[in-house]
Structures are given as C-alpha cells and as structure tokens.
Amino acid sequence: MSPQATSGPRRVVAIVLAAGLGTRMHSRVPKVLHPLCGRPLLAYVLDAARAATGERPLVVTSPQTAAIRAAFGDEVDWAFQASPRGTGDALRAALDVLPADVGEVLVLSGDVPRLRGDLLEELLDQRRLDQAAFALTAVAAFDPTGLGRVVRNEAGGVERIVEEKDATEDERELGEINAGLYAFDVDWLRDRIHTLMPSPATGELYLTELVHMARADGRLVASLDVDDDGRLLGINDRAQLAQAEWDMRTELNESWMRRGVTMRDPSTVYLDATVELAEDVTLEPNVTLRGSTRVGEGTTIAAGSTIIDSVIGRDCHVWASIIEHSELEDAVRVGPFAHLRPGTSVGRGAEVGNYAELKNTRLGPGVKQHHMSYLGDAELGADTNVGAGTITANFDGKVKHRTTIGKGAFLGVDTMLIAPVVVGDGAKTGAGAVVTHDVPAGTLAVGVPARIRTPRPPAEDESAR
Helix, strand, coil % (nearest 5) of the chain? Predict the structure, then answer.
C-alpha cells in the first residue's frame, strides 16, 4: 500500500501502534496477543477502530512482534517499524504507507482492549469542531502516578504533555493524564512528523512532542475530556491483564443475565466474549464456556462443567463434564464426569453418564451410554444401549479404525469391540465379549473371542392352538 493522489471525500483510518513487545509481561508472546476473555487484546482495539471509521485499521509492528501478523493476517493493513525508536517513529512508519486519500487518522495503542468505538467518534468530532491540528484524550485520573500529565494554558487549551519524571512539583499535582488516543489532521501531521527530534535521554521519537509543534505553528490541540472509568487503561503486566479480565467478564455476565440467562453465582462463571447463549439458559457455579460455544434455549450447564468450541442444543443438561469441539442435539443429558472429545456428535434424547468418554463418535437419538466406557471413532444407531465398561479398541498401533453399531443394539457389560467391526441392528453382545468380527443383525455374540449365536425363535403358545 503506497500513497497515491485521489479525488473525492477523504477517508478516516485508524493507526494502531503494536510494535512493542511489552517487557513487563515477561513473555515471549507480544503483549497484544495475550488473551482476554478468549480473544487477543489487539482484537478489541481493532473492533473499536473499525466501528469508528468503517475502514481497515493500519497496524504497526516490529521484528519483535512479527507474530501479530501471523495472528491477524489479511484482516488489517500493515506498517513496519524496523527498530524500536519510540511512538513518533512508529507513527512515521505508518504514514509512509498511508494512502493519499486519507484525510484524518486515529492513533491508538494496541493494549487498550476496553476502548469503545463511540468514544473514538467523539474524539474525531472534537478535532473537527475545533479545527485543531489534532485532538487527544484527557482523563481525570483517580491516580495519575507514573503517567504523562496534560498541561493547559490560562484559556484551558492544551499547551503540552509532560512525563512525570520531567514534571515540576506543581505539574505532578495535576490530575489530568494523556490516555494516548489521538485524532490527527493528516496534512499537518505529514508536514511535521519528520521534524520530530530524538530524546536526549533515550534517543527515541515521542509522539507527544507534536503538542509543542502544533502550538508553535499556531494550531490548536483539542482535548476530549473523559472521566476515569478504567476503560482507557493500557495493559502493561499480568496483574493489569487479570483486572481487565475481571472487569470485562463482569460486564459480559451482566449483559447475558439482562438478556434472559440465569447465573446462580456470576462471580464463578467464566465466559469468552465469543460465546453465544439463548434465553432461559442456566449456568450454575464454576462453569467455563470458551471459544465459539453456543448454548440453546432451556439448557442447564450444571456445576463444574467446561465447554470449548461446541454447540449445545435446546433443553440439554450437562453436569460436571468436559465437552470439546462437539455437538449435542436437543434434550441430551451428559455427566457427571463425562468427557466428550473433539468430533463427537450426540443425537436427540441420548444420555452420556458417569466416566463415559467419546472421541470422534456419533451417538444416534436415544442412545444410552451410562457408565465407565470409551467409544472412539464409532457410530451408534438410535436407541442402542452401551453397557458399563464397553470399549472400542480403535487403534492398532498404526491406524485408527471405525466401529459401526446399528439401531437398537445391546452391548453387554465389559464388551470390547476390536475395530474395524460392524454390529448389526438389534444385535447383542454378552458380558465380557471380545468382538473381533462383524455381528450380524439380530444375533448374539458371546465369549473370548466372541462367537455368534442365533437366538431361538419363541416357543409356540399351546393356548393358541
């Protein structure tokens, strides 16, 4: 992407600064990729940017944060800061690839996940109202310690921003801080960005020096003044990340409860921001729902359950169980202490009970798998009963094989099915059977190895003669 001349209305684009690794996280993972309620920090900033501008954001990365590009791919446009020379240099790198038809830019930090798009719209409106070179966001902070102060002139206009280490005693008493969110007139910014001088102390180029330059040019620096509700706090370490998770989770849970979800103890319910819940869902204490999980109307997720990237139908009951990358149709009961591993599908009205495990398996409607069993790479027809201790031996040491069980089958206690094997409709296995060959429909397999027995026809009723 390179600058080019254009005609017509000029666009607004958000530039997101994400070139810093975030050393206070003490992590190999770039700070903005750390998860918050199931999504990277940066994802929330990009949502706000798109909401405010309707355009693809432009994200600035560095060699230290190359993993960000792999995570977001072609969702955004990219700029590259070759070496960490400060926020002013990062903004310069973005302007070098910004198209010429862009008239305004928002400049955002990638570590402010609770940012809202409507606040960014207000920031743009403030700059336009004052016809300012740019507008910044000033927060009346409860505790400004360690943060840059906004210094105003007698008329109340922004005169400069001073870092705490450079501030006088009087300036340190100021309560307004710079939140690091800006709206710029791009024409003025292009003229001035290359005149930033390095800090004598660090050698870095600081974006905040643009305040002094605008005032020297006789241009206003507008401010959007907001209260300190915690939403504009950046995430610098894992303690702040945990606090942000708590705040966001509290908001999510309250939002779902107002939309018809019951939570017995909201403080112990952990929802990712990507989870979807229908009305009349009940979430009991110590429940975790992650990823793309969807839960249907009238379902109860009972205490101690974890569900990941799964679809749960209507009127189901899941208790103290783990469900991963699976699907339950309506009126299914699971648990306690069941484990549904990836690729599992459970039909309407089926029951999966204590210590039952499934992997890449389809249970038809009405199947009963009540206790202590393992079904892997299997398909079971409707209304089949799975006895306690039943196992599909699906792996021969090299290859996984499938087991197919028909409708209305009955698997006796401790049945072992050596895949690949087919058990026909209405077939039965005796207790402890080791099934190594197909069991035809309507027959009985017993023994080790199992042998097929054909049930005798019912005795003729003498009274019917």
Answer: 25, 30, 45
Reading the block at residue 298, the tokens are 């009238």
How far, in Å, CA of 137 to CA of 106, rounded? 11
Q: What is the domain count for the chain? A: 2
- Domain final residue pick, 227, 249, 270: 227
Q: Kindly report the pTM of this predicted structure.
A: 0.89
Residue 155 is encoded by which pair of tokens? Answer: 């008329």
318: helix, strand or coil? strand
Residue 5 falls inside a structural domain: no
Q: Which of 159, 192, 227 lies at the terminal end of a domain, its last residue? A: 227
Q: Could you give the C-alpha distances from 348 to 330, 365, 383, 424, in angstroms and in order?
A: 5, 5, 10, 21
Decide: helix, strand or coil at residue 305. Answer: coil
User: Comparing C-alpha atoms, which of 339, 348, 350 is closest to residue 375?
Assistant: 339
Domain CATH code at residue 78: 3.90.550.10
* 24 in the same domain as 119: yes
Nearest residue to 388 via CA among 404, 403, 374, 371: 371
CATH of the domain at 330: 2.160.10.10
The alpha carbons of the chain give a radius of gyration, in whole angstroms, of: 31
Give me the catalytic one of 317, 370, 371, 401.
371
437 is catalytic: no
Q: Is 6 inside any structural domain?
A: no
H helices within 165-237, ranges in order?
169-172, 186-193, 209-216
Query: And the tokens for 374?
Result: 């393992």
Q: Where are the beta strands (DSSP E) in 110-148?
A: 134-140
The structure tokens listed for 448 are 């080790």
Query: Domain span at residue 188?
Result: 11-227
Share of the chain above pLDDT 70, in %: 96
CA distance 383 to 76: 50
Quickly count: other Cβ atoms within 10 Å of residue 1's Cβ: 12
| The amino acid at 85 | R
Q: 267-293: per-residue pLDDT in tens?
A: 999 999 999 999 999 999 999 999 999
Predicted pLDDT at 75:
96
Range in 9-13, 269-273, 333-337 the model is least confident about: 9-13
Structure confidence by residue, pLDDT tens digits, 123-151: 999 999 999 999 999 998 888 877 888 99
Q: Is the pLDDT of residue 2 over 60?
A: no
Please answer whether residues 117 and 123 qualify as being in contact, where contact means their C-beta atoms are separated by less than 8 angstroms: no
The whole-number pLDDT of residue 298 equals: 98
Give the list of residues 6+ apart from residue 204 with CB closer than 8 angstroms, or none. 84, 85, 86, 87, 88, 89, 198
Q: Is residue 232 part of a domain?
A: no
Closest by CA to 184, choosing from 148, 134, 147, is 134
Which residues, in sequence order, are CB contacts of 152 under 8 Å at separation 6+? Answer: 158, 159, 176
